[in-house]
């Protein structure tokens, strides 16, 4: 069956419509709804968004928007998406050792997904939590003031969850 | 001078984000005053009198910005810029999570000032927690009759919606943010026309930072004249300084404008980590030119003092670098940030930021030459001063060139010594 919004996403979509005088403004929130449903944004989903919003929004436009922003996953990511900040303040606080620790523990390189699709590890630019570095974002949650010991504990908890 | 709470007076309350708490400490009284006792012109004048300057980065006088909105029949839009993303900057996230009602109240007052009936709070997408908190606060405000139709029964309508960014630093630039809100790539627009004339949906628009809006209820409560007594004459008020890097107590500190940087670093933040010597300070977010230790020790935390040192107070993000900091590495990381975040519209930025980053990578690996250093300076000259639509390329230059100039020796030590160029 072709993709359509889940019931929850449909409800949120209907709430969004009256908030904007132009339907085009719905594209970014709709891509988040698609990602919440599927875990990533694909052509089928983007075509669906273009169809739901209607003229003048086309698949090409939705695709152009999706590829501009880093938060839309253009391919599937692991169940736990570990994003470690590598910019100046986190670097000064020792983020490199956190990245190395996570990669070594999970037996992978940054940018990769484990074979069991459980973890994806990425190095990202600034997460906007510079006073509490090193910082990692795992799915929706921020983890701050990380040490190799604390990230080890977090990984163990994720392992139990997963 | 020194620590002074205005926005953060109730930071210790665990429920500071709730309507109940906010109203228990006088929240929304300023909105009631603005709607019942003041005309739009009086609100604008009060904010002008306060001398409030935008807390996002540029420091433009807020009242003047509001005054540019033309009197037309077109809808006027009000946008809160919560797309905080400049390396070193992390103050707005705290305001969003702890004082969402202060933000909403500030926006509602600003709405009346510019005759806007629709506003948007644009928050960087990674701030999931903050987005949920602000959404809940907006719902609370609607239920209490503080947003929507006929606020306080005083005849003013204002609707407010939360919009999530999707991961693009450039959307912190106001015209890119507007494009993003319109469902487009976050490409900055050519100015003029300025948003005050043609912004969101080609209508008059005001875009202000989170901290700027949060100051507004306090100005209305105390009057602009009283507010102006805090801080310095040209930089009134308090400022949230986000301090990070090699300091013992990093964090967000609200201090009176004009406080000596020395006091901020050594008294308020406890001094340099591991009791090392201070090497340098990046005073206002990653794009503000670096200050040497000597410069930092003479500076005060206000727009004029930092500008006199040819840097910027910017977003109020202070990054401390001790003698242990590897400035070649930190400069490379900043260049990497700007090359990653270039939107790609303008060639000097798209090509220049990547090129500078690649050259710095070469230098940090010990494979660079004097020629590479010269090339970075040459590229920099083509990336600044209006060669691009927005200032992202300029920001990259400001993050790189002053460091390479002021700490030349540190860069020279990393070069391959056998290779040099003579002219």
From TrEMBL, chain B:
Cofactor(s) of this protein: [4Fe-4S] cluster; FMN
InterPro entries membership: NADH-UbQ_OxRdtase_51kDa_CS, NADH-UbQ_OxRdtase_suF, Nuo51_FMN-bd, Nuo51_FMN-bd_sf, Nuop51_4Fe4S-bd, Nuop51_4Fe4S-bd_sf, SLBB_dom
Record PROSITE patterns: COMPLEX1_51K_1, COMPLEX1_51K_2
A GO MF term: metal ion binding
Keyword Transmembrane helix appears in the UniProt entry: no
EC number(s) stated in the UniProt entry for this protein: 7.1.1.-
Keywords, sorted A to Z: 4Fe-4S, Flavoprotein, FMN, Iron, Iron-sulfur, Metal-binding, NAD, Oxidoreductase, Quinone, Translocase
Residue span(s) of domain NADH-ubiquinone oxidoreductase 51kDa subunit iron-sulphur binding: 328-373
Catalyzed reactions: a quinone + NADH + 5 H(+)(in) = a quinol + NAD(+) + 4 H(+)(out)
Family per record: Belongs to the complex I 51 kDa subunit family.
Alphabetized PANTHER family for the sequence: NADH-QUINONE OXIDOREDUCTASE SUBUNIT F (PTHR43578)
NCBIfam families given in the database record: nuoF_fam, PRK13596.1
Role played: NDH-1 shuttles electrons from NADH, via FMN and iron-sulfur (Fe-S) centers, to quinones in the respiratory chain.
Protein name stated in the entry: NADH-quinone oxidoreductase subunit F
Organism: Leptospira biflexa serovar Patoc (strain Patoc 1 / ATCC 23582 / Paris)
């Amino acid at each position: 069956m072709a993709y359509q919004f889940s019931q929850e996403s449909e409800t949120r979509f209907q709430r969004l419509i009256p908030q904007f005088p132009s339907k085009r403004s719905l594209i970014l929130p709709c891509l988040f709804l698609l990602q919440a449903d599927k875990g990533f944004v694909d052509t089928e989903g983007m075509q669906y968004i273009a169809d739901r919003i209607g003229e003048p929004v086309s698949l090409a436009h939705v695709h152009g928007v999706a590829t501009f922003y880093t938060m839309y996953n253009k391919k599937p990511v692991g169940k736990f998406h570990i994003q470690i900040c590598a910019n100046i303040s986190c670097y000064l606080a020792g983020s490199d050792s956190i990245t190395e620790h996570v990669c070594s523990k999970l037996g992978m390189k940054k940018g990769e997904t484990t074979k069991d699709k459980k973890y994806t590890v990425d190095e990202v630019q600034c997460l906007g939590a510079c006073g509490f570095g090193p910082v990692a974002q795992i799915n929706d949650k921020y983890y701050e003031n990380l040490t190799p010991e604390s990230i080890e504990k977090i990984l163990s908890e994720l392992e139990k969850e997963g | 001078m020194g620590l002074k709470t205005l926005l953060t007076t109730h930071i210790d309350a665990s429920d500071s984000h709730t309507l109940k708490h906010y109203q228990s400490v006088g929240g929304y009284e300023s909105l009631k005053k603005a709607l019942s006792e003041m005309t739009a012109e009086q609100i604008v004048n009060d904010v002008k009198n306060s001398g409030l300057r935008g807390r996002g980065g540029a420091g433009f006088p807020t009242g003047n910005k509001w005054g540019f909105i033309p009197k037309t029949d077109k809808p006027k839009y009000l946008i809160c810029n919560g797309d905080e993303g400049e390396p070193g900057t992390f103050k707005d996230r705290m305001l969003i999570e702890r004082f969402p009602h202060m933000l909403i109240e500030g926006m509602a007052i600003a709405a009346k000032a510019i005759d806007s009936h629709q506003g948007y709070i644009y928050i960087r997408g990674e701030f999931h927690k903050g987005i949920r908190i602000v959404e809940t606060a907006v719902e609370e405000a609607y239920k209490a009759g503080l947003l929507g139709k006929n606020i306080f029964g005083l005849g003013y309508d204002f609707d407010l919606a939360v919009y999530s960014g999707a991961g693009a630093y450039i959307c912190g630039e106001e015209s890119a943010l507007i494009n993003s809100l319109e469902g487009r790539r976050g490409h900055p627009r050519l100015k003029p026309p300025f948003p005050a004339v043609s912004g969101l949906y080609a209508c008059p628009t005001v875009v202000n930072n989170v901290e700027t809006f949060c100051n507004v209820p306090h100005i209305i409560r105390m009057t602009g004249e009283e507010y102006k007594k805090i801080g310095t004459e040209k930089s009134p008020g308090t400022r949230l300084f986000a301090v990070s890097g090699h300091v013992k107590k990093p964090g967000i500190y609200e201090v009176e404008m004009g406080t000596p940087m020395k006091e901020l670093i050594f008294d308020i933040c406890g001094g340099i980590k591991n009791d090392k010597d201070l090497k340098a300070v990046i005073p206002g977010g990653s794009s503000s030119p670096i200050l040497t230790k000597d410069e930092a020790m003479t500076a005060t935390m206000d727009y004029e003092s930092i500008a006199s040192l040819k840097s910027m107070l910017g977003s109020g993000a202070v990054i401390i670098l001790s003698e242990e900091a590897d400035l070649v590495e930190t400069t490379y990381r900043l260049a990497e940030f700007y090359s990653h975040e270039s939107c790609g519209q303008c060639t000097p930025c798209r090509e220049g930021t990547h090129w500078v980053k690649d050259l710095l990578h070469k230098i940090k690996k010990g494979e660079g030459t004097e020629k590479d250093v010269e090339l970075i300076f040459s590229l920099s000259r083509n990336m600044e001063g209006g060669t691009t639509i927005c200032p992202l390329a300029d920001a990259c230059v400001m993050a790189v060139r002053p460091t390479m100039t002021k700490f030349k020796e540190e860069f020279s030590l990393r070069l391959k010594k056998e290779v040099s160029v003579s002219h």
